[in-house]
Design a protein that fits this description.
- This protein is of the alpha+beta class.
- The protein has two domains: 142 residues, Sandwich (Jelly Rolls), CATH 2.60.120; 125 residues, OmpA-like domain (60s Ribosomal Protein L30, Chain: A, 2-Layer Sandwich).
- It is 20% helix and 33% strand.
- Strands 9-10-13-11-12 form a five-stranded mixed β-sheet. It has a four-stranded antiparallel β-sheet with strand order 1-8-3-6, with no helix packed on it.
- It starts with a helix and ends in a 5-residue tail after the last strand.
């Protein structure tokens, strides 16, 4: 391991990994050694824990990560992500562990203080029928584009709550608020609308048209990442929804946008003991269309 660390350091930030070094370092399903933002595969099962290594060229900023792990009900499994320093020691880490339910996830932001090449270790253990995925993005990794997790397709999240509607309607005096979870609209750390967003957008367009009023499209995020990064992400997502609604026939001057970043949560991002609250964070990652039902059209 130390020899591999030294070999990578010798390449420098501007260097490129040779095919031989990539094969030696990764020893896994992951190709190429420098990923585009998504790493996924099957759990190792009875063979025990398995570690994979990847190399990232990162700039100063926030490295946003989301870990997902899935399998059969009541199956023990764990996924760990570690950032290694120049000596091969663990500089920072996060993990997700699931013992019940079909799927679990966690999200964490790692501050990166300087430009350079980083080594990440992904260790996975658990049943042979499961799958894992690591998504990466953020201001420190702007080249990340591939946010797909094919190994996780078709796995339903474990939750005691009823399935969430694409558009939740919240009414109060003089206001109708149309709330859409960002998972219905966007991939992780992205502001480009997914093809699967069409049903939610169609319902938003229909409700705004029926109201006959001007509306404001608000963007909101969870607390993972810096305030500044989340503010810009919320603004981009609000603009993407507005532009899509205009493309569906709504008048441009009838729709304003506003980004609030992480400043207006509707659920706790963390539990009382400080641990991650994925269900709360999921509720906070949202877009809301606000219609003033008492104002002028």
């Amino acid at each position: 391991m130390r020899r591999l660390i030294a070999s990578i350091a010798a390449l420098g930030v501007a260097g490129s990994l040779s095919a031989a070094l990539g094969e030696e370092l990764s020893t896994s399903i992951m190709r190429p050694t420098v990923p585009t933002g998504a790493i996924s595969g099957n759990l190792p099962g009875a063979s025990g824990p398995r570690s994979y290594y990847v190399v990232l060229d990162l700039a100063p900023g926030d490295l946003l990560t989301q870990l997902l792990i899935a399998g059969r009900e009541k199956g023990e499994r764990r996924l760990t992500l570690e950032l290694l320093d120049a000596s091969g020691a663990v500089a920072a880490s996060t993990f997700v562990r699931a013992a019940s339910g079909a799927k679990d996830e966690t999200t964490k932001s790692f501050p990166i203080d300087s430009t350079g090449r980083r080594i990440l270790r992904v260790t996975v253990e658990g049943e042979e029928t499961g799958a894992f995925c690591v998504l990466m993005g953020g201001s420190t990794f702007p080249s990340a584009k591939d946010q797909a997790c094919p190994a996780m397709a078709g796995v339903k999240a474990a939750s005691s709550e009823p399935p969430q509607r694409a558009v939740e309607v919240i009414t109060s005096k003089c206001e109708e608020r149309l709330r859409v979870g960002s998972d219905f609209l966007f991939d992780f750390d992205r502001a480009d609308l997914r093809a699967e967003a069409a049903p939610a957008l169609a319902e938003l367009q229909q409700r705004i048209t029926a109201a006959g009023k001007k509306a404001t499209v608000e963007g909101h995020t969870d607390s993972v990442g810096s305030d500044g990064y989340n503010q810009k992400l919320s603004e981009r997502r609000a603009s993407a929804v507005r532009n899509a609604l205009v493309g569906r026939g709504l008048a441009p001057d009838s729709l304003a946008t506003q980004g609030y970043g992480e400043s207006r949560p509707v659920a706790p991002n963390q539990n009382a003991d400080g641990s991650d609250n994925p269900l709360g964070r999921a509720k906070n990652r949202r877009v809301e269309v606000v219609i003033n039902t008492c104002g002028r059209s």
